[in-house]
Design brief:
Largest sheet: 13 strands, antiparallel
CATH architecture of the largest domain: Beta Barrel
CATH topology of the largest domain: YmcC-like fold
CATH class of the largest domain: Mainly Beta
Number of domains: 2
Strand content: over 45%
Number of strands: 24
Shape: elongated
Structural class: mainly beta
């Protein structure tokens, strides 16, 4: 019997900067016990190995203890009762399409005949839920784990042979979990996914809630799939030759959470001495890309702005922005026909990222993106100073301090030193821009 499989074509993509959530060094091994209360209550021990790898692309092969994982370049041999398969992954980052760990291909011997059929027809069905890796990737083709994995991160995607599985995944923070591979306990990222399968005879088995505990440097150590039909599938890591590493921080210094609204006061010592009060709200969010709306509350300007920001593996980036203003204030017009009408104009000005996804003190980056230069015409350098206490009218915050030196050729107002403070769970709380023309712009969070 030939193995059944399904493939997903991905466009060219740059590799992600790290693969800590599912490392794949040569010789890596995992051993799981997989069970299902309805179809395999006694459980099956599965051995998983790295079959092959090519840069950010890699393939894991698995088999139960009675079989051997298939070698690289070979198809699984499927005698009756064989429990063998492969899953191909890619660590990737592709603009607005997604970031993190993606599934590009999979193959497996057919599951036991008693298990539900998860396709519209039984012929050539490549949907499986009879192993650990099957459960891990179900419904999450493009993003099994989204990056960056920060507080409040949530994403939606699809999976299955014909994208008949829809999923919404949410990062719930870190938890201590004990499994046979780590009996003393290990810190794991908890990701919970709501799954919905439609149009098959096995919809109730293919739908439900999946919870996965991911350990940095190791991969999934525990998987629980609560199916709609009442069945429970579970997998637990028994052994591995990999060692956990420190997980990245979960603090989200600019949460793209729909409904989040901040009110700011914006002043400039030369051009805007009367405070301009503006409201900045997250109006819509899809897969860590958000639309922000900015509107005037009071002051000498009437501003309406819309911005698009994306949180990606390398950090928070400005994608687009449009601002209209009827103003009594005469701001100097910057090169490239830009103005500083809003706090977001000041925050995103220059080059990306605005701040890194996983910031650490001393981290720095320079201008160099051709798109950014086309939009702003700015060169310079940014760096993370560290976490500092800052006081603003909205209160006292422990905030991440990011400093930038910005140079716009021939424009003293568009050049200078900018310092920004970001509070976890809240976003920008303060900004000071000391322009080279001697004026100072100040943005403070009011509430």
């Amino acid at each position: 019997m030939l193995a059944l499989g399904a493939a997903l074509a991905l466009g060219a993509a740059a590799p992600a900067a790290a693969d800590e959530w599912l490392p794949h060094p040569a010789g890596a091994q995992w051993q799981y016990r997989w069970s299902d209360t309805s179809y395999d209550p006694g459980g099956t021990v599965e051995n998983v190995v790295v079959q092959q790898q090519n840069g950010p692309a890699f393939t894991l092969a698995w088999a139960d203890q009675a079989d051997q994982p298939p070698a690289a370049g070979s198809n699984p041999s499927c005698p009756p009762g064989a429990d063998i398969g492969t899953v191909s992954f890619r660590d990737w980052s592709q603009g607005l399409a997604g970031n993190g760990l993606a599934v590009t291909d999979w193959s497996s011997c057919p599951p036991p005949a008693a298990m539900p059929i998860l396709c519209a027809t039984a012929t050539n069905c490549a949907n499986f839920l009879s192993s650990t890796l099957d459960d891990v990737i179900w419904g999450n083709r493009l993003e099994v784990v989204a990056e960056p994995l920060l507080d409040g991160t949530s994403w939606t995607t699809t999976g299955g042979q014909s994208n008949e599985v829809a999923s919404t995944s949410t990062f719930l923070g870190y938890r201590l979990i004990r499994v046979p591979a780590f009996p003393a306990g290990v810190r794991a990222a908890l990701i919970r996914t709501n799954l919905s399968l439609g149009g098959t005879g096995g919809d109730e088995y293919g739908s439900g809630v999946r919870t996965v505990w991911w350990v940095a440097g190791v991969g999934p150590v525990r998987v629980v799939f609560d199916h709609v039909d009442g069945s429970v599938s579970a997998a637990t890591l028994l052994h591995t030759n990999l060692t956990p590493v420190a997980a990245p921080p979960e603090q989200n210094y600019f949460p793209l959470r729909q409904g989040l609204a901040n009110r700011y006061e914006y002043t400039n010592t030369r051009y805007l001495r009367q405070g301009e009060i503006e409201r900045v709200a997250v109006a819509a969010v899809a897969n860590q890309t958000a639309r922000l709306s900015v509107s005037s509350v009071s002051g000498p300007m009437r501003v309406a702005g819309a911005y698009e920001l994306a949180l990606r593996f390398d950090g928070l980036r400005s994608v687009a922005g449009v601002t209209r203003a009827a103003s009594l204030v005469r701001f100097p017009r910057l090169d490239h026909n830009r103005y500083f009408f809003t706090p977001i104009d000041l925050m995103t000005y220059g080059f990306g990222p605005v701040l890194p996804a996983y910031p650490r003190a001393g981290q720095s980056w320079r201008s160099g993106n051709a798109y950014d230069f086309h939009i702003y015409g700015v060169t310079g350098r940014s760096w993370v100073v560290g976490v500092r206490t800052v006081r603003v009218p909205a209160g006292r915050f422990r905030a991440l301090e990011v400093e930038s030196v910005l140079n716009q050729r021939g424009d003293r107002f568009g050049s200078g030193v900018r310092i920004m403070w970001f509070a976890a769970g809240r976003g920008l709380v303060k900004l000071i821009f000391r322009h080279r023309d001697g004026s100072i712009s100040l943005v403070q969070l009011l509430k």
